[in-house]
Amino acid sequence: MSFYVNQIGDLEYLCADSLNNVLHGFSTRYGGVSTGIWSSLNLGTHRGDDPANVRENYRLFCAALGIEPDSLIFASQIHSDIVAAVDHTNRGEGLDRPVPSHRDAMISNTPGTSLVVFSADCAPVLLYDPDHRAIGAAHSGWRGTAQDIAGKTVLAMVNAYASDPARLQAAIGPCLGPCCFETDADVPQAIAQQLGSAAEEAVEKVGDKYYVNNSLLIRMELERAGLRPECIDISTDCTSCQPERFWSYRRVGQNRGSLAAIIAL
Ligand SMILES: [Zn+2]
């Protein structure tokens, strides 16, 4: 099981074998209509890009995924551990009207809902429960990882939909890789408070700097929440290593577009 690339004309996006039974996709920069620093598939609505171009980018990406733009429900991300259950009444939040409250993760079991999380180095995490036809999406940068947002999203699905974690399928999308995620001691310390000594496996110390493998940490959290290792796909793409293909906060700061990961019922 692994990630693979879908190419439709100029549009390129990633999918995961683990989620083959549910509509989903992880965007790249390729295949949109935005120009300049947002070129071309910018899916961020608060990045200074022309709103008409962002809307057209969503139309193109949604058409490729086979979902209705009307079904989209956005996260409103603040690097928190807030998980919100959403349903058909939340459709349009983000693209057509403001998101009413912050949420770094969402869950749903309502047909006609599509969950959207954003990233530019942070890890997008998508979840699927094939037994109860439920989905989850989480935004997990290191702050989210230090708060176990992935594990908390699983727990929310268990509580809301009676999901069995051992039956869940998961995919962790492109993010800042350990090759480029250089930090000081504060990041590994915050993560160790959540994961204990197990986190050491995902942090390499070089001199007085640390290199953090956020994907591996999230995998640990998902497994700790009860997911089976063979049900978790991890993208090997580093957002900072491929600036022409992904947006990276680490590489270009705030003057950029945003990637999106979408999962839909
Ligand atoms: Zn890298």
Structural topology:
Layout: E1 3-8, E2 11-16, E3 23-27, H1 51-65, E4 72-74, E5 83-85, E6 105-108, E7 114-119, E8 123-129, E9 134-140, H2 142-146, H3 149-161, E10 169-172, E11 182-183, H4 186-195, E12 203-206, E13 209-212, H5 214-224, E14 232-234, H6 249-252, E15 259-264
The structure holds zinc ion.
> Could you give the order of the helices and strands?
EEEHEEEEEEHHEEHEEHEHE
Amino- and carboxy-terminal Cα gap: 22 Å
CATH topology: CNF1/YfiH-like putative cysteine hydrolases
Output the CATH class name: Alpha Beta
Overall mean pLDDT stands at 97
What can you tell me about this protein's structure?
The protein is globular and about 45 Å long. The chain has helices at 51-65, 142-146, 149-161, 186-195, 214-224, 249-252, and strands at residues 3-8, 11-16, 23-27, 72-74, 83-85, 105-108, 114-119, 123-129, 134-140, 169-172, 182-183, 203-206, 209-212, 232-234, 259-264. It has a 6-stranded mixed β-sheet. The chain has a 6-stranded mixed β-sheet with strand order 5-6-9-8-10-14. Strands 11-13-12 form a 3-stranded antiparallel β-sheet. The protein is α+β, with helices and mostly antiparallel strands and 265 residues long. It contains 6 helices and 15 strands. The chain has one domain: CNF1/YfiH-like putative cysteine hydrolases (4-Layer Sandwich). β2 (11-16) and β3 form a beta hairpin.
